[in-house]
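Table S4 entry, CapA family protein.
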Amino acid sequence: MAGDILLHPALWEQAEKDGDGKLDFEPILAGIAPYLAQSDLALCNLETPVAAAKGPFSGYPMFIVPPQIIPALKEVGYDGCTTASNHSMDAGVPGIKRTLDALDAAGLVSTGSYRSKAEAETPLLTEVGNAKISVIAGTYSLNGVKEDAPWRVDDIDKDSMIDRAKVARAAGADIVMAAIHDGAEYTNTPTDSQLVLYRALADSGEFDFIYSHHTHSVLPIEKRNGTWIVYGLGNSVAKHATKTVLNKEGLTVKMQFVRTGDSWAPGELVWAPHIMKPTPLRWCALPAADDPCTTKGQDAASLKRTTGTVNAMNAKDSGAKMWTLADQ
């Protein structure tokens, strides 16, 4: 699982440079490809709707971003994306339809926003090996934009999420994960409401893994009653105007599931830290294998901060490990 794909104008300007006038996002994303290649199901959170191929494009506060990002996500190894976020309705219903059509065309599964009520009522089920996996997505807000229908974008109401998980189980899901868009931006601490909701979902027995995005910063990982909770993956790629190093950092998490008889249970969780390289803009793994992502000192400080944050709720003691390609 990887965090937010949040395209600010600087990223499509970089993509245009990389593509010699055409928009090519693959070089920005390429660093994550070896990590995604080691997963059976690789998911991102596509936070914003896409525009038509030639735009117009816009950034904060109402994002409508280049659709060329979607085939690039497929090319680097993603299998799908969640689409429930506070920006889901930035381009209205046409933006949702255009985004989902583009994901379909690229062969990427999705859940979280929908073109029809029937689509919203049908749980995502994707076969991975011998397991059927479902993802229950939701967002805390739509930034005040009104939906035309209550089913258009999933929310994070506890009872609704549990009910949707039960529907997914009844439809044949062996593994159910929650993908939650929630939290306080630019902080390394989960909110009280996050703790209450995520732990309630873990305690419900309906979810095998819970992870979150939106804060644009890394948050702790916790194991509760056998269920791993990732409170904040941070960004995968973004370029905020807000000047804090926290929004340049993120995690890629690999969650393994173990089959015992006819059932599946959570197994090992590993996490890979990264930071955005500033020039040119690139996803960059930490610790950097060759040249530093930023400077040696900044890379070291970022790695130390990320490690401390991840383990602040006893993740290491519960068995979570840092993941580097050399380990595989």
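The domain at 4-327 is CATH 3.60.21 (Purple Acid Phosphatase; chain A, domain 2).
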